[in-house]
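Table S2 (continued). Query chain:
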Amino acid sequence: MFDFEFVKPSSIVEAARLLGGEGAQALSGGQTLMPTMKQRLAAPSVLVSLTGIAEMKGLSVAAGTLTVGAATPHAVVAAEAARVFPALAALAGGIGDPAVRNRGTIGGSIANNDPSACYPAAVLASGATVVTSKRRIAADDFFQGMFSTALEEGEFVTSVAFPIPEKAAYVKFNQPASRFALTGVFVAKFAGGVRVAVTGASNNGVFRWAEAEAALAKSFTADALQGLGVDDSDMITDLHGTAAYRANLVKVLTGRAVSAAG
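Corresponding output:
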């Protein structure tokens, strides 16, 4: 690991000023950044910790929307979202192990946008709004490919606003060593339709399965998926599974998520 300076601002305004400096990097839970730095694959000269900013922590509910501060650890989401958004709470409670859940944060997860991370599926399936230090970004515009988002240089996530669905569930097939999703599907039913988001399967990162959304909007049952197929041309092939295997998992897990939600 290379030498760096560590600073811990107490406000979003102060953090934004510090992150405008050359070589500065935001640090939230550090579950990805710190191992990357240890391997000398990243060398920021200044780490700006976001964990001391009180306005970026905690959960609140208003007008049918659950807002989660970006510096809120997964374990807190798992405990405090259970009453209003149980599917999101269950997702958070299934990330990694206790050490990861008590350090990792929702903001860090979606900003990193690992292709197998769980939170991006929840954000996309819920049609959430990502609030940053500069603006508000719709989930459909935020995720832009593997490890890529709409965040600009120096911009960081401050909170995520989730519209609370009528029904929802998240089902993932774990990669047992890492507990990342080999494939995971989040299904959310709203009065105006259904959204289905898939993680862990595509070389392009998290994505929506439009055909399933249309079928489930007509009949919110696992049987509605029977005639559908998933194109495997952009699916990941690695030592854990082929593209065809992951494509099949998408359909299977979507059916299970619908059954769990319904």
